[in-house]
Amino acid sequence: MKIYNAKIYTMNSRREVIERGWIETDGELIKSLSAGEPESVSEGDIDARGMTLYPGFIDAHTHLGLTTAGVGVEAEDFNEESEPCSPQLRIIDAINPMDTSFQKAREAGVTAVLISPGSMNPIAGDIIAVTTSGRRIDSMCLRRAGIKFALGENPKMTYMNRDETPFTRMAIASIIREMLEKARQYMEAKDDPERDDPDYDIKCEALLPLLKGELKAHFHCHRADDIFTALRISREFGLEPVLIHCTDGHLIAEELAAEGVPAVVGPVLCDPCKPEMANVTPANAAVLTSAGIKTAICTDHSEIPIEYLPVSVGIAMKAGLTFEKALESVTVTAAEIAGISDITGSLEPGKRADMVLFSGMPFEIMSDPALVISGGRAVKNTL
Q1: Structural class in CATH, domain 57-344
Q2: Contact 137, 95 (CB under 8 A)
Q3: pTM of the predicted model over 0.85
């Protein structure tokens, strides 16, 4: 299939913009793209009519499919509150791709997301990147992306209310350290040919890819002191951290820039709904990117419905984020932070054919994509 007569934002390493060009898909992947007109077009090809083509949008932090829209606690599967430390949980076993929120994501141009457990546990389980198109989560999964950690009020209040540890931020950090140290010793024992293998430990096994640098550590952290705790623990155990929410980031941007750590900010469409979010501002993304910090924008679905990701980006632009950085925050930068930039996030040969076509500014509240292509297949077409 070819899409022609389009302005194309490739979002490649050169941030190349083709003023009038075409792109060809070969099944699931992009085959080629170029300026000008294709040599030939067929009945199944699409005339973009001068509209603008972008990579499909990526939401780098969601709980999509973990709580079915319109259903109560019976369908909530994102927090395993029976114990504070549960790295062995596999999020793929909780995701319901039949949730109508997947369709809403596609219709808004969101073609890929990271799905994470909730933030009630200091260590909550794994995180996966998925495409928003499909019926079976096994075939929708793009890659295992990280392990979820949480600091601050959520784990503290969850277990304090049950008269269980952790009561304090100190206890949250100690639970994380204890589990990471146990996993590190478990790994050393397994890797030592002169020692017998230790007894199988499912929690330690789940953390081995993290300790080996194969997965990133996604830390839920709003307040500045929690952000620095995330960095402190990451340094102690050689983890590659991602700061999720990073609400106070704009207050400590200089320090974060020196660390070279990425942030996924959001939700943007919210008020200071709890004490640790007292400093929330839609200018956060603009301040962080101006400091040179790699920044993505998220909805934290279902906190903010996934279909409002483009609107969230528009609000960040109103608060000072440039259009280029705004587009990066839900395409190539989001893909890099998510660890899937070799798969999607830019329009280049060999990558997934995830694309969205807009007639106007994509981040305006009245804008909707005229065409959404996911994995080379049109999942929305109003042309």
Answers
A1: alpha beta
A2: yes
A3: yes
